[in-house]
Amino acid sequence: MRKILKAGVIGHPIAHSKSPIIHGYWLQKYGIAGEYLRYDIAPQDLKSEVARLVDSGLRGFNVTIPHKESILELCANRSELAQKIGAANTITIDDTGRLHADSTDGFGFLQNMAAHVPDLNWRNKTIMILGAGGAARAIVWALMTVDVGQIILVNRTYDKAVALCAELTNQYEGMSEIIPGHWAEIPDFLPRCDVVVNTTSLGMTGQAALEINLAPLPANAVVSDIVYAPLETELLKQARGRGLSAVTGIGMLLHQARPGFERWFGVKPDVTAELESLVLS
Ligand code: ATR
To answer: Is the distance from the beta carbon of residue 249 to the nearest atom of ligand 1 less than 6 Å?
Structure first.
């Protein structure tokens, strides 16, 4: 009998996670004898519960809130990116039971942008990032690897933007420039931005609106939102209304799942329109 390949996602709470839908879809599509389950693990139980998952033969797991940072302590190996970001979302367990950590959110962001705006060449571009939380970190680290010209990191709490910029500048001396900005300065930055990315929860169903007038953006600018509920945020609607390229947030979620699936189940999966509607339904 063929061995069932097992993987899953850990978090607390975990019921909301879309990952089982994504991996379940791919398992079925590629005819793989595997399973992908949700594991609700409280912070104080992380070490013992992860040991139990290793013992049960799991090939790996995704990690969501609140374990993205604390999981690193349990990992024998960390990718350079996971180490730099200080967080991981994808863990692979090797044959000896050792954990390997990686962060694929930034990969998911770049892949999603490439899928929707294939002509976008990041080199020397000016990118404005709204927010300085976990999602912004992953995206900014990814952008530092594609040779953008300048990143403007704008955050409600200006000090957090300053701290993240300082950290990145130290790590990537001589590479892309990254500068902090005040939220009130957004209209002044817009005329020179090629890409604007919202990484805050503003505009999400049940959250406050993201009130930005995109009129000063150049005519060929691209606007991207990591919020995907609703899929068409007010920000993206406004961008499309101006004839700008607009990239929805669901693709980042789908693309970040690909490296894990490939490592655990041995097939490089595709992101399709069918998968997107399944996850959104
Ligand atoms: P995530 O991991 O999803 O990025 P997070 O780390 O909690 O979540 O970060 C949330 C981001 O959204 C932060 O940049 C936060 O700004 P602050 O650093 O000032 O808290 C931003 N954010 C949340 N609510 C906001 C609001 N009402 N106005 C502006 N920014 C907001």
So the answer is: no
CATH of the domain at 33: 3.40.50.10860
User: How many Å separate Cα 256 from the centre of its chain?
Assistant: 6
Token pair for 252: 């980042």
Task: Please work out whether the CB of residue 150 comes within 6 Å of at least one atom of ligand 1.
Answer: no
> Of 3, 6, 47, 68, which one is the catalytic site residue?
68
Cis peptide before 66 (omega within 30 of 0): yes
CA distances from 9 to 67, 159, 251 (A): 11, 33, 19
The verdict on 55 and 186 lying in the same domain is no
Residue 209 to residues 184, 204, 214: CA-CA distances in angstroms? 16, 8, 14
The answer to whether the predicted template modeling score (pTM) of the entire model surpasses 0.70 is yes
What are the pLDDT digits (tens) for 143-186? 988 989 999 999 999 999 999 999 888 776 667 799 999 999 99
Catalytic site includes residue 29:
no
